Amino acid sequence: MKTTLLIFLIALSLIASEKKDIVTKDSLVKKPTYIIDAKNYGLIDAKNAFFVINSHKYGTMQESFAFAEEKDAKEHVEKYGGSVVNYETYIKLDENSTK
After folding, report:
1. CA-to-CA distance for 34 and 44, rounded, in angstroms?
2. Who contacts 38 (Cβ-Cβ below 8 Å, separation ≥6)?
3. pLDDT for 28-81, tens place per residue?
4. Which of 2, 73, 91, 93 fits a disulfide with 67 by CB distance 3.0 to 4.6 angstroms?
5. How many other C-beta atoms can be found within 10 angstroms of the C-beta atom of residue 73?
6. Is this model's pTM higher than 0.85 or not?
7. Rounded CA gap, 43 and 48, in Å?
């Protein structure tokens, strides 16, 4: 079941990436941006998500995890370490890491 869901989400991501518009960090801040909830694998608005960074657990595509609910992010931190940050902080940290 999880494999089928993962394949579906990857396909959805590929379809979404076929847009002809060029995506920039500025456009991501202005437009709704969706990310996969690390707990239930559904799409959530990234601006309302709680991000876990510096965790001891690694994801398949990145080292951070997004959660729709703050309590889920805190549970992840209790189990795997790390810190919970909001969208704005997450974007700033990402910009600083690419400089």
Report:
1. 5
2. 52, 59, 65, 66, 67, 72, 76
3. 555 668 999 999 999 999 999 999 999 988 776 677 899 999 999 999 999 999
4. 73
5. 23
6. no
7. 12
